[in-house]
Structures are given as structure tokens and as C-alpha cells.
Amino acid sequence: MAKQKTISELQAEIADNERQLAQLQHKQQQLENRRSYYEKGDRRKRAHHLITRGAAIESVAPLTKVLTETEFYSFAEKAFALPEVKGLLMEAVNEHNKNEFGGD
User: Fold this and answer.
1) What proportions of the chain, in percent to the nearest 5, are helix, strand and coil?
2) CB 71 within 8 A of CB 77
3) What is the pLDDT along the chain (104 residues), one digit of tens a residue?
4) What distance in Å separates the CA atoms of residue 99 and residue 92, rounded to the nearest whole number?
């Protein structure tokens, strides 16, 4: 037959379990903070990427600064639909891939 625990033993066991629970909750919070940090970093990188691309467009085509967002999107859609622009973009992507992946 199993020995019955005394009240002080049960209280010590409760205290130990509460300490372990607090440690696990702290560890969970650390992991959630780390995940949030990395997700924020990805968003910051993307925002930086978009800002620098937008700045590049404004530097080579300063007139785009006067367009509203809707007007700019309309312009960009029309410009990138032109066969000449599609061809230039494809050349740039192919050159990038060649340099990136060491193709001939």
C-alpha cells in the first residue's frame, strides 16, 4: 500500500509544481518574444526593400512624384505590360539568375 503524504509534503510538492509552471510560462514567453522579434525583422526588411525600390523609381523618373498612388499603379501596370519593358525585365532577371547561380 502506498504511503500517504503528509500535509507538509503535499504543500512542498505544490510549491515545486508551481515553480516549474512559472519556469515553463517564462520559457513560453521568451519563445513568443523571439518569434515576434524575427517576424518584425522580416517586416522591416520588406519595408526597407519597398522603400528603396520606390526611391529608385522616383530618382530615375522624377515625374512619378506628382502622381497619386492610384495613378502611379495605373502607370506601372501599363509600363510593365509593354513588350519592350517585359523583355528588358526578363533580361535583367536572366542576368541576375546567371550571376546568382553561376550559369554560363
Assistant:
1) 90, 0, 10
2) no
3) 668 989 999 999 999 999 999 999 999 999 999 999 888 888 889 999 999 999 999 999 999 999 999 999 999 999 999 999 999 999 999 999 999 888 55
4) 11
Look at the block and give the residue holding cell 518574444.
Answer: 33
Separation CA 73–CA 71 (nearest Å): 6
**Cell reading at 104:** 554560363
Rounded Cα distance, 57 and 99, in Å? 23
C-alpha cell read off for 64: 512619378
